[in-house]
Amino acid sequence: MALQMQPGTRPDPGDAPGQAAVPRARKNSFSALLSRRPGLRLAGLLTAPAGWLILVYVAALAALLITALWTVDTFTGKVSTTWSFENIIQVLTDPVYQVITLRTIWIALAVTVIDMVVAIPIAFFIAKVATAKWQKILVVAVLMPLWASYLVKAYAWRNVLAEGGLLEWLGAPIGASSPGYSETAVILTLAYIWLPYMILPIHAGFEKVPDSLLEASSDLGAKPLKTMRLVMLPILVPSIIAGTIFTFSLSLGDYITAQIVGGKTQMLGTVVYANVGAANNLPFASAVSLIPIVIIMIYLFVVRRTGALNNL
Question: Over the chain, what is the mean pLDDT?
């Protein structure tokens, strides 16, 4: 009996008669289905990473919220899985934690503003002033602090800020003194540690600004500062916001720097660390850790509403 083959299918030379036609036809029909359904193709590509994101991130947040609703028995010290809003209410209404929350937000904002002011001229010089050879060298110089350990950088600043340290020695001729281990020390240290995360996005934004646009502004009589304010900054808004997201969120959840150079300065991170460690009160620590998460979500929502993230 003669084999009947579908049009467009050819058996491979090494296949037995009739064995290659059906699998190849199925493969062609599946490929045609994917080509007709871009949504199905996209779903196939995103299923694995989306599933991992849901498992690692969303599930972790859900577990954090559930843990915040538990309580700790004051007599036995054991965690009670009975749900209660006691921890969340205490965090929101207790004046002590309100002050700590406001202090943490202030420190994160101060670090973000300092890094933005310092990063803009540095990124501009690297992208628009330095030669091609020096651009590569300077970018590597910006990245080099990221290769060092976080603890090494924090303890280095502890030595700089100590009584009789480098900062006090440099300020002695003009009568300036070191802030010591304080809230100011926390801001300075965090501003140094997170500065590369602000420089890199802004540098990428400056590279997108065409040189012809700057030349046109100069030809029309605009001075450099006016060109920066009216021409560059509007274009750089998405890059600046990307940098602020890094510096603000990282500062908001930090606790190590506050312990090393902060003295008695308390942040939300130090409260979480204290309750996880010595106090052994994981539910209350989970309730406190929800505050920076909510603050970041509000910040991202406000930024998204402004449309500044559309061009990122």
Answer: 83
Question: Which CATH number characterizes residue 131's domain?
Answer: 1.10.3720.10
Residue 13: is its pLDDT beyond 60? Answer: no
In a domain, 20, yes or no: no
The count of structural domains within the chain is 1
Q: Residues 305-309: contacts with CB within 8 Å, 24+ apart? A: 308/237, 308/238, 308/241, 309/238, 309/241
Q: Which amino acid is at 237?
A: V
Burial class (CB in 10 A: 0-12, 13-18, 19+), 126: buried
Q: Which two tokens stand for residue 35?
A: 């080509």
pTM of the predicted protein model: 0.80
Share of the chain above pLDDT 70, in %: 84
Structural domain for 105, as ranges: 86-267+290-310
Nearest to 111 by CA among 298, 232, 305, 257: 257
